[in-house]
Each structure stands twice: as structure tokens, then as C-alpha cells.
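seq as requested:
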Amino acid sequence: MVAAVFIGDEVTAAAFRLAGLTTQAPEISDVRPEFEQACDEASLVIITADYARALDEESLHAAICRADPLVLVVPDGGNRYWPEDLDARVDRVLGIEQ
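C-alpha cells:
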């Protein structure tokens, strides 16, 4: 079993590779099979927000809620795409948006 897998663009992957993670930088259209394989083989899956947007929201949400493996959505190295703001999402779900 692989400890951690990063899925995202090549530039951001280079940084995670330096940190010792297994990295994958597929074409955005090929992210789904790579993500599913990573979820089967790793205990931690880190995916950039732009690549996560290529997955259908339901399967991404299910993977995050399963918590095994732990799935984290992070911004890409160029700060072009950011994951949804968790505080705002919690407020929206609880009906206390400001």
C-alpha cells in the first residue's frame, strides 16, 4: 500500500514529489480512473481543486466522507483554483449564511 498519492498538475506535483509523495499528473480528462486507483491503493490522497472539479461532485463527496483513505482537496501551485471555503459551506448547511 502506498502511503500518500498526489494528483494534480505537473508543477504542483514536483513540489509534492520533493516531499516524498507518489505523484500523478494525468490529463484532466483522465483524472477519474487515476483518482479511483489512488483511493484503492493509498491511505492519503491529495488532489488539486482544478482536478477535483473534473470529478463528479457526488463521487468526490462520497470519497471525502468515507475518510478511508483520507482525501484532501488543495489549491494548485499557481493559486488558480481553490477548494470551497469550509467555513462558508458549514454556515450555508446550517442556514446561518452572512
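Residues 2-94 form a domain with the Rossmann fold fold (CATH 3.40.50.10580).
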